[in-house]
Amino acid sequence: MTSAAHTQPASELLTYDDLQAEPDDGRRRELIDGQLLVTPAPIPLHQIAVARLLALLLDTAPVQLEVLPAPVDWKLTEHTVLEPDVLVTTAEDTQGKFLAVTPLLVVEVLSPSSRRIDLILKRAVYEQAGVGRYWVIDPGVPSLDVFRLEGDGYLHIGRWEGEQAYTDTVPFEVKVIPARLVGRRS
């Protein structure tokens, strides 16, 4: 994903309504502090990892939780609206036009052009918003980095690569093996 320059004046912050007026052309549009981030459609390897993670999480999530893939708007403020690759939230929080409640888990799958956005910009927003778990999947390695909110900052729990299994119990028990998110199915 790449961030495209937007020609708005620095003093003019974009809003959720401005975002809704943008064309539907297959690009992901998000706002951080009123600044538009435009990213291209993801590459196939990215989508394979998203699809397999989604299947894994859906298979293990309890009924009171929902697992959602992008595009789903999470409106933090009028000027900050994000679309994580995958998120987990409570079922009652999915009733509106957008999510207004902080998800329990947010997952970003890296693309060559999304690294900086996912690892720096979005991570900082997720941290400030109080997302309890933040996972970053790099399908090219393959790897999984896990961050847990401790106080007001993220603690890097660790990195799992290839066939190494990571098991978490928050927001529910699940075992992730990074290589199985992108390897050939048997």
The percentage helix is 10-25%
CATH superfamily: tt1808, chain A
Say what oligomer this is.
single chain
User: What is the string of helix and strand elements?
Assistant: HEEHEEEEEHEEEEEH
Report on the architecture of this protein.
This protein has 186 residues and is α+β, with helices and mostly antiparallel strands. The chain has a single domain, classed as tt1808, chain A (Alpha-Beta Complex). Helices cover 23% and strands 33% of the residues. The protein has four helices and twelve strands, in the order αββαβββββαβββββα. Strands 3-6-7-8-9-10 form a six-stranded mixed β-sheet, with helices on both faces. A two-stranded antiparallel ribbon has the order 1-2. The longest helix is centred in the first third of the chain and has 17 residues. It is globular and about 50 Å long. The N terminus is likely disordered.
Features:
disordered N terminus; 186 residues; six-stranded mixed beta sheet; two-stranded antiparallel sheet; 12 strands; alpha+beta; tt1808, chain A
Q: Could you provide a short overview of the structure?
A:
The chain is an alpha+beta fold and 186 residues long. The chain is built from 4 helices and 12 strands; from the N terminus they run H-E-E-H-E-E-E-E-E-H-E-E-E-E-E-H.
Write the layout of secondary structure elements.
Elements: H1 16-20, E1 28-32, E2 35-39, H2 44-60, E3 65-69, E4 74-77, E5 80-82, E6 86-90, E7 105-109, H3 115-129, E8 133-138, E9 143-150, E10 153-161, E11 166-168, E12 174-176, H4 178-182
Parallel strand pairs: 7-8
Antiparallel strand pairs: 1-2, 3-6, 4-5, 6-7, 8-9, 9-10, 11-12
